[in-house]
Amino acid sequence: MIKKRTDPMVYQPEMEKIDSDIRDKVLKNVDKYDDQKITDSDVEEALKKERLSISDYGALLSPAATPYLEEMAKKAMIETNKHFGNSIGLFTPLYIANYCENNCVYCGFNCKNKIRRGKLSLAEMETELKAIAKTGLKEILILTGESRHHSGVEYIGEGVKLAAEYFATVGIEIYPLNTNEYAYLHNCGADFVSVYQETYDLSRYEQVHLSGPKRVFPYRFEAQERALLGGMRGVSFGALLGLGNFRKDAFATGLHAYFILQKYPHAEISFSTPRLRPFINKADNNPNDVHEKQLLQVMLAYRLLMPFAGITISTRERPGFRDHVIGMVATKISAGVSVGVGGHEQEEKGDEQFEISDPRSVPEVHQMILNRGLQPVYCDYIRV
Amino acid sequence: MTDQLVIGGHTFNSRFILGSGKFSLEIVKAVVENGGAEIVTLALRRANHGGEENILDYIPKNITLLPNTSGARTAEEAVKIARLAREINCGNFIKVEVIRDSKYLFPDNYETIKATEILAKDGFVVMPYMYPDLNVARDLVSAGAAAVMPLASPIGSNKGLCTRDFIEILVSEIPVPIIVDAGIGRPSQACEAMEMGVAAVMCNTAVATAKNIPLMAKAFGQAIASGRNAYLAGLGRVLTHGEASSPLTGFLED
Asked: pLDDT per position in chain A (384 positions), as tens?
């Protein structure tokens, strides 16, 4: 008998509901967005604007904008330069656990995937943190899979407290929390939260999130807002490109950030642009129709919609791509990356989330940034 | 004739204040020297004390540091950052920046006044970044500001003197130096600001985004000096209309 799947729009009892109309605003705009109807002149008009309207933004994400990629890149580079100069932030992720209760078909951590699971003890975390700090990095992103049983909020909080001893900036990329839990982690020392909606297309979302708390679409959607309500200073947005219609997903991602900023003007906004990658037991997982050209188009459109937003480029992309997008559109790059549990100093305690494409160390990425005439920035935050 | 900039009892020969946050650290020294700047601002949050690529290691020692409180959203946070700056020997000058608007980076004038009052009482030479508003400028002076730093246009926009008329009012009404900060995009705009009588100009993006950064720093240094000289010389009158050759009031007899 096939088990009936839960309704992705229904919150689980422990999930906080907040009063927000942002989801409605985003999804209504996405419903109206038809990337196939956009013409060359819509794109040309958008490129003339200093500030993009929502429809201009949609134009720049459309297939019609593809021949204008070079022009978009030139305009984006000017904006990036105006707002960030030639500074490029450096950071690294630290996965502290890979247990997961979600069955997401695209992810190496999914609970049905037979991989080595593990979590770091506090002592192991400290060893890893010390090793990373020795590379000179001052910013760290703490990650887990989604398992309140194995990696609960208090466990993460202890990890954040330790991280805050060694790093000026601590971000978290963990499962969505309630406001009071974000406030707790903020008090522990975390200031930045990344939550990626993966796809904003509800029916696609339902197809790829087969079970687990992540299946609840609105709770995930509202995570950034709860994080800000909990006192976090910055929030990051992203769609997993290649999972659904990437143009619509990127359109929704930008609008999600846009409406959050309208409501919370103090929020520091950033974007990530992950594409699907192969993982253990699924070597053919790939970004489908999102080739580098399309990926760059998305990044450029984010930049032109929000010239002041941070854009991070991860090791999902190859060195040649990463090296060329920094300064032009991306403002932050990871280095010395391990996406297994631990693995910076000690042997990994759990398998990787995905295969990385750029294994370069911190000194190697540092030198590459200098070679490109840019300035590596290790520290750009004071926790007050 | 000596024409020095005096801020909080400290004197400077240059009226070019250089922002440092947007260009490569290895050229900071050349930029400072080319521009003739004697004051360099830095975001304290960028100071990586004892770590990699620490901006403090690149600023020449004879320069007056003007750390800013970038990242602060409230007066309380600005005060904490200022005190941290003092702890790591950045001196007594502080540029107060309190911003809770990530899009335009406009300063929060209200919180800025509060921070200025606390820091001035704490012995800092306080230079607040503000949106040009006469009442706020007066309150900042009452709170102990050593200079007032109105924005010309949004940070990084290079749009020039969008707030020109309001800055002129500050110049005529406020007894401490008015230093134009943010938005100056060209040396000619810096010159124009100086001609209006502002005491100094701060630039960052306009220099940092030039193709030849040290040369642009030099151009700004010269433009600022030139504008200052024009102000001191007294600008000649500029008519926007023709002048009648026969006086209109020539018919009057007694």
From this structure: 556 789 999 999 999 999 999 999 999 999 999 999 999 999 999 999 989 999 999 999 999 999 999 999 999 999 999 899 889 999 999 999 988 888 888 888 888 888 888 899 999 999 999 999 999 999 999 999 999 999 999 999 999 999 999 999 999 999 999 999 999 999 999 999 999 999 999 999 999 999 899 999 999 999 999 999 999 999 999 999 999 999 999 999 999 999 999 999 999 999 999 987 767 767 777 777 889 999 999 999 999 999 999 999 999 899 999 999 999 999 999 999 888 888 888 788 777 777 788 899 999 999 999 999 999 999 999 898
Contacts of A380 in chain B (CB under 8 A): 43, 45-46
Under 8 Å CB-to-CB from A265, ≥6 apart: which residues? B100, B101, B102, B103
Q: Using CA atoms, how far apart are residues A205 and A243, in angstroms rounded to an integer? A: 9
Which domains are delineated in chain B? 5-233 (3.20.20.70)
Chain B residues with CB-CB distance to A366 below 8 A: 52
Q: Report the residue of chain A nearest B81, measured CA to CA.
A: A384
The pTM assigned to this predicted structure is: 0.91
- For A5, which DSSP code? P
Q: Known catalytic residues of B?
A: 95
CB contact under 8 A, A266 and B102: yes
Whether residue A83 lies within 8 A of chain B, CB to CB, comes out as yes
Closest by Cβ to B101, choosing from A82, A265, A269: A265
Cβ–Cβ < 8 Å for A18, A229: yes
- Least CA distance to A87: which residue of chain B? B22
Contact B24 A136 (CB under 8 A): no
> Which residues of B carry a binding-site annotation for 1-deoxy-D-xylulose 5-phosphate?
156, 182-183, 204-205
Phi, psi torsion values for A117, nearest 5 degrees: -100, 150
CATH code matching the domain that covers A71-377, chosen among 3.40.50.2300, 1.20.58.100, 3.20.20.70, 1.10.1530.10: 3.20.20.70
